[in-house]
Amino acid sequence: MYEWIWRMLSGGPVAKMCTALVLAGMTAAVLWYVVFPWIEPYVLFDRATMSP
Amino acid sequence: MRVCGELGLTVGGVLLLLCAYLIWGTGGYTAGRQAVLREQLQQPPQPLSGGSRRPERVRTGEPLAMLRIPRFGEDYRYVVVEGVDREELRAGPGHYPGTALPGGTGNFVLAGHRTTYAAPFNRIDELRRGDEIIVDTRDTRYVYRVTETRIVAPAEMSVIAPVPGSPGRRPTRARITLSTCHPEYSAAQRLIVFGRLDDRRDPDR
């Protein structure tokens, strides 16, 4: 999978590395700001209130 | 085989990032909300229609008081908001609607996160009998002292009764109860800290 992405990138090794880092950063940002806030309510490890 | 390995590594990395988000990312959100709430608390309360000067009811999500616990250091201060639903607890410790107000006869019950959203109640297991819990409202400082710490099941509703442990009994004293999850990173039980009002004075602002 990663090898396939690597082959898809254009340019020399340095340019490929830069593009790969930007892609990884974008993926992390989408996870951090969009996906994680959305799934956070379903992660049940910090319930502070009493519930009958 | 190779794809499986790469997939496994990816899932592992995403899970690690999720843990980092829950512990640090959510704290940043709470810090922002607390800054706004602190400013709101310093402003005089908005007059409610009907003209009552001291509203007995605070609307959900609004700041109620400043909570300080000297054992956790001078910097430990959180604005308590009204309400204990998900949205309110993301902003800071929340006050159970319908329970006593700060200093009032009955039980002033608060809930707060233990590990996420700045984890205001992370260390309340370290509280010992006699420790001060200070609640500053706009015009009065209430000093409660810890009486007891207990670990209970999440359904043990009697801890938030006006007289904790004796639901239905009429309260004669002012108490405070803090609730958070237990053990850390779990929702299996609740850690409860009880306290009793010891003193009330003018806040030295």
UniProtKB/TrEMBL annotation, chain A:
Q: Can you name this protein?
A: Uncharacterized protein
Q: Which organism is it from?
A: Planobispora takensis
Keyword annotations:
Membrane, Transmembrane, Transmembrane helix
In terms of superkingdom, the source organism counts as: Bacteria
Instruction: Please list every transmembrane segment annotated in the UniProt record, as residue ranges.
Output: 20-39
TrEMBL record, chain B:
Its name, as the record gives it, is Class E sortase
Q: Which InterPro entries match?
A: Sortase, Sortase_Class_E, Sortase_dom-sf, Sortase_E
In which organism is this protein found?
Planobispora takensis
Query: What is the top-level taxon of the source organism?
Result: Bacteria
Keyword Transmembrane helix included in the entry's annotation: yes
Which Pfam families does this entry report, sorted A to Z? Sortase
Membrane-spanning ranges = 7-24
Single GO term (MF) = hydrolase activity
* Positions of the catalytic residues: 113, 181
Which controlled-vocabulary keywords does the entry list? Hydrolase, Membrane, Transmembrane, Transmembrane helix
